[in-house]
Amino acid sequence: MDVGLPTTPLQTTQLNSQATWHEIIWKVSDAGLFADSKHFVDCPVLRPWELVAADWEQLKVDGVTQEALKCFIASNFGPPGSDLEAVLPASWHEEPPAWLAGLPEEEARAFGAAVHQLWKTLCRKVSSDVLANPDRHTLLPLPQPFIVPGDRFRECYNWDSYWVILGLLASGLLPAARQLLTNLLGLVDVWGFVPNGARAYYTNRSQPPLLSAMVAAVAAATATAQEESRGREGAGATGVNGNGRAQSASGAGVSNNHSSSNSTGGTETETLLREALPRLIAHHGYWTSGPKLVRVRSSAGGEGGGAGSGDGTGGGQEGGGTGERTVFELSRYHAELYEPRPESFREDLNLVEGAGLGPEAARALYCDIASAAESGWDFSTRWFVGGDSLAHTRTTQIVPADLNAWLYRTELDIAHMAARLGDSATRDAFAARAAERAAAMDLLMWSDADGCWHDLLLQPSPAPPSLRQATDGAATAPPPATAKAVEAQEEDAGAVQEDGSAGVYPTQQRAGVYASNWVPLWCGVAAPGSSRAVAAAAGLRSSGLLQPGGLLTSLCRSGQQWDAPNSWPPLVHMAVEGLERSGAPGAAEAAAGLARSYVAGCRAAWGATGHMHEKYDAMVPGGVGRGGEYVPQVGFGWSNGVLMTLLRKYGA
Ligand SMILES: OC[C@H]1O[C@H](O[C@H]2O[C@H](CO)[C@@H](O)[C@H](O)[C@H]2O)[C@H](O)[C@@H](O)[C@@H]1O
């Protein structure tokens, strides 16, 4: 079985006896021993793999009955989570953050204090055996403690960590936020990118690129903390209670913070930026090369317009623009997995079997499904092409508006950080890349009619991912006949590049109302107060997504979790800040209204269930989310982070 790139000790061991591992996971899945496929792949191996493999061979001789399989698992595998230890977050303080005392309502103060306490229940470190015997664990050996989402999500997640970090900062837990960030930056050293989550089976893909926003948030909070500490010293005050107001920071916040003078917060902040900058550049390289890079033409136009003027774009501000350019480099999601996801093995097999697909189509669908997981939006009608079921997921044929907006933000963050460190060559190179990306987004993705940036569909469709391995350099080389098929298909489309790289595709705007269509507003792709930003704020307000219980993910009730009626905390947060930053008339009030409906919904659900939930029901204040391939989860890292951030800023 293709469990990803063979670079973790566990994967190397498994790949060395690939057939055995494949048989085991298949049989365990077939036997239906565990309700959740993720259960088994989270189990640590208790003995050297060679002994486990020998046991398995004996079991096959004796007969793999249900009972024998249970015994085999009990003697060779530990329970999921047994290789993690609960620890207190660094600099933990029982007392809630000081700002809570300023909230007028006692019940709101109590709720905030209760959510603050949840960090204690979600902080983990890997056990010493993960560090000593990494070949026995699917957990990646993170050196520092981290916050997990909760429930079945026992490990550290990539994009979740951005909102976790904001929440830790709102709770006055800067050292814990710093540790979490250190882990993620360390993953870039090992992998060249931050994987989906800190598990071996997540290393075939990443998740939305918010690493620079995390660095910016921690850097801003570090600078503020230093400033406050100096202030206290100056005033002769003593003691640090850890509750000081850390400056609210996000991707967009970095510009101001990093371009400001270095009269305060210099040394520690700069040390962090110096550590982070090369890793951010490496991570950006991962997102802008290989199969993730797509070249698109500007000529195709789109159903919503597409002939943008560049008015108000960040690109315009930075002195970019489309000029005579007709080919642009954008990015897409593209996992490197052509088999079922180990953590959803049964679900993926059932999907492919149910669709009656042959081997090539099956490999393509596995890749598109894993690529949807890479998007964080697993799963959604957003990725369906040419049909309305999960089997129509074609993530790799789509150039997403949110992904490119986050990369725009990353490019600007890198430029600002480089400027702060005196590296003008890097500053100029990344400012230029940001300008080009913003110009392409304005030209190709912006819709005057809808007041938003739409995803793009590559037209005609590129070769299926399983065939693309031939040209995109993924793990397994296909037979020569397959490589020829790719070439033929791209030649038919007139799309082969002289340098032999993947073709240049005309694109068409995707229809559909998705919360992701307004992520560019949060990322500053339209300058605050510009006509684009004003139109985008109006587009969001009239989209139908803003509802009494929060923000609908889409207008479509598909039964998938990244569709209606679910309201996801990270999307709520970006919509609130996007509206606020737009500078549009009435947008600040709309932002406050959405923020308060989120807080009120969480509070009502907390009252009814005693939990913070992974997702909520946008139509029913206090209702919880549903749908998708696993049962709704509680805990919950990013929900708590968004709650603390919005409660602090907007009150109850
Ligand atoms: O096990 C199925 C999938 O679960 C994860 O996705 C969901 O939870 C993540 C953690 O909160 C979140 O980041 C993601 O947006 C959710 O859809 C996991 O990330 C997937 O890769 C996995 O296949």
UniProtKB/TrEMBL annotation:
Pfam families tied to this protein: Trehalase
UniProt keyword Chaperone, yes or no: no
Catalytic activity: alpha,alpha-trehalose + H2O = alpha-D-glucose + beta-D-glucose
Domain of life: Eukaryota
The keyword Hydrolase is assigned to this record: yes
Classification via SUPFAM superfamilies: Six-hairpin glycosidases
Biased composition regions of type Low complexity, renumbered to the chain: 248-269, 463-486
Biased composition (Gly residues): 301-323
GO MF: alpha,alpha-trehalase activity
Annotated GO biological process: trehalose catabolic process
Keywords: Glycosidase, Hydrolase
EC number: 3.2.1.28
Entries under InterPro entries matching the protein: 6-hairpin_glycosidase_sf, 6hp_glycosidase-like_sf, Glyco_hydro_37
Start and end residues of each stretch annotated as Disordered: 225-269, 297-324, 463-500
PANTHER family xref list: TREHALASE
Family stated for the protein in its record: Belongs to the glycosyl hydrolase 37 family.
Protein name, as recorded: Trehalase
Organism: Chlamydomonas reinhardtii (Chlamydomonas smithii)
